[in-house]
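Researcher: Quick test of sequence recovery. Tokens follow.
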């Protein structure tokens, strides 16, 4: 690494903050509709002219806007991913990243005392923080699910349990891909309205139901033949994650398929970089959460009574991996 690269790394959050502000102020939706001057956008968003001009210029510098004379407009890319009117809108996950920033600025404190810097998004009292988190998960899952569902044969399966399923994105994609399949999304009670909305929007309310509960303390009804556990275990410590897997596997009929998606560390724990950094995200946001290695996840699955454990050969845009096995 060069000193220049080091300083670029140190100041990378300036670019992130410019993007976050652009999404918070919803500039991209407006500028995908029609080009506008800084004055016009400033009036439409109730922003100071000096401030909005600087932000628009920086976003143009980041190639998220195009500037022609005094007018700015969304690029084809930002119109596709940053306009609220696009089906591919990624603003929810960007706002979620924004909500995590305050906690990350106090990472040194979390490292010193081993405790999170705030309640974390799952348990936040702020509805908008929880909504960005859950719809951010919807954004992320919509990128990966179209690659995952064709790679997993559920053609003979009837009932899928989506444990910690959030907005139900994976249940939706698995059910779309497998017309005989029904699913239950199990998640915290506060998730219900968002999950029911996404399931209804997908036209699958007849086949996907929501069960409200706390996975660490509430029972789960049995009779499933697929267990899908995506990005849930990293929010828990090793003992709790193992107990959750045991509970999920107990809800399966013998021969039930188990699928666990996580950001998986190599045994060195230093790579890939994303799960190593994600562990710090769990330090800031949870009391015991962390990224796990393939060996740790495989051992938890084996202790839960799962056999034929292996990792699926899938390259996903999120960098996550999927470990599978069979119950009983
Ligand atoms: C990172 S999100 C993953 C959502 C979804 N599985 C996905 O991959 O898109 C974790 C989910 O677990 C849920 N969750 C966290 N703690 C939980 C608990 N104790 N009981 C039930 N659900 C929980 C959260 O509400 C959230 O929806």
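Model:
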């Amino acid at each position: 690494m060069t000193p220049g690269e080091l300083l670029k790394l140190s100041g990378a959050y300036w670019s992130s903050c410019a993007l976050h502000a652009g999404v918070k102020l919803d500039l991209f939706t407006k500028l995908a509709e029609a080009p506008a001057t800084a004055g016009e956008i400033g009036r439409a968003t109730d922003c100071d002219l000096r401030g909005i001009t600087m932000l628009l210029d920086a976003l143009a510098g980041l190639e998220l806007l195009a500037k022609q004379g005094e007018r700015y407009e969304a690029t084809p890319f930002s119109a596709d991913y940053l306009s609220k009117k696009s089906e591919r809108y990624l603003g929810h996950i960007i706002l979620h990243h924004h909500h995590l920033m305050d906690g990350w600025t106090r990472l040194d404190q979390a490292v010193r005392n081993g405790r999170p810097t705030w309640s974390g998004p799952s348990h936040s009292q702020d509805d908008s923080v929880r909504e960005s988190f859950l719809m951010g998960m919807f954004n992320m899952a919509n990128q990966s699910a179209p690659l995952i569902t064709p790679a997993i044969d559920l053609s003979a399966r009837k009932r899928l349990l989506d444990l910690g399923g959030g907005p139900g994105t994976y249940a939706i994609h698995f059910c779309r891909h497998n017309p005989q399949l029904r699913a239950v999304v199990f998640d915290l009670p506060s998730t219900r309205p968002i999950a029911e909305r996404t399931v209804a929007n997908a036209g699958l309310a007849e086949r996907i139901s929501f069960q409200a509960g706390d996975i660490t303390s509430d029972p789960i009804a049995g009779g499933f033949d697929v267990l899908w556990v995506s990005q849930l275990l990293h929010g828990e410590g090793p003992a709790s994650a193992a107990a959750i897997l045991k509970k999920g596997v107990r809800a399966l009929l013998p021969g039930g398929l188990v699928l666990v998606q996580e950001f998986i560390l190599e045994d060195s724990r230093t790579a890939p970089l994303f799960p190593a950094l994600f562990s710090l995200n769990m330090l800031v946001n949870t009391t015991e959460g962390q990224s796990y290695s393939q060996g740790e996840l495989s051992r938890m699955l084996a202790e839960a009574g799962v056999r034929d454990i292996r990792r699926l050969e899938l390259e996903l845009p999120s960098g996550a991996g999927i470990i599978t096995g069979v119950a009983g």
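The chain has 14 helices and twelve strands.
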